[in-house]
Design goal:
The protein has 3 helices and 12 strands. The chain is 18% helix and 27% strand.
């Protein structure tokens, strides 16, 4: 069965449906829903409890004995880098992060930018030029990403990629999840090599 890949562009927001193949989507979702609770990152992120227990990084996935899953994650990130280079005419692009994120019932996120602060104060990650989200499920209610400056909120579909810049123009939030758990695969991208995590070992094993 051939899955049709469709692309939508709203200014510099890129939406690609079926970006993740049905096979990899099934494998990732089955894997992530069976991860033991103790494997989820259990340290407060910059002392913000909001993120506690909701991350599982690709390097930890690999270290925990799941190289096949980690390499699927890394492979998708490399595909996104190719898209950024092609669409936004970038010669070099790296990623500083690749991780699963889960959103429980009751969680939401107010609009923010990934590299700039609305009041002009220093941002902790000013080098993050782009962000990507790949949705792994849709069996939950709410949880839609929205871009208030663009009056845009794409409908969530499993396997869909959402790619966008980290600037204030692309402020984005996540509406409250009112039922179920939302799972995504997220990464950030930068042209500054010193912020890349490529120094980690990516084994390059065959994905079959």
């Amino acid at each position: 069965m051939i899955t049709e890949i469709t692309t939508e562009k709203v200014d510099d927001i890129i939406i690609i449906e079926n970006f993740l193949s049905p096979r990899y989507l099934e494998h990732l979702y089955e894997f992530i829903t069976q991860v033991p609770e103790e494997k989820w990152w259990d340290h407060n992120y910059d002392d913000v409890e909001f993120w506690n227990g909701r991350f599982y990084n690709a390097h930890e996935v690999h270290k925990d004995g799941h190289p096949y899953m980690a390499n699927i994650m890394w492979q998708q990130r490399k595909r996104v880098i190719k898209i950024i280079k092609s669409i936004f005419k970038k010669d070099t692009m790296y990623s500083d992060l690749c991780q699963f994120v889960r959103w429980f019932d009751g969680y939401e996120l107010t609009p923010h930018a990934d590299a700039e602060e609305p009041d002009g104060s220093p941002h902790p990650f000013p080098y993050r030029e782009y962000a990507s989200i790949i949705y792994l499920n849709d069996n939950f209610t709410g949880g839609e990403i929205y871009f208030p400056n663009k009056n845009f909120s794409p409908k969530i579909k499993p396997g869909m990629l959402v790619l966008f810049p980290g600037t204030l123009e692309y402020l984005h939030g996540v509406r409250e999840v009112t039922e179920g758990t939302r799972y995504t695969l997220c990464s950030f991208y930068t042209s500054q090599k010193e912020h890349s995590d490529d120094h980690w070992s990516e084994t390059g094993i065959s994905l079959g």
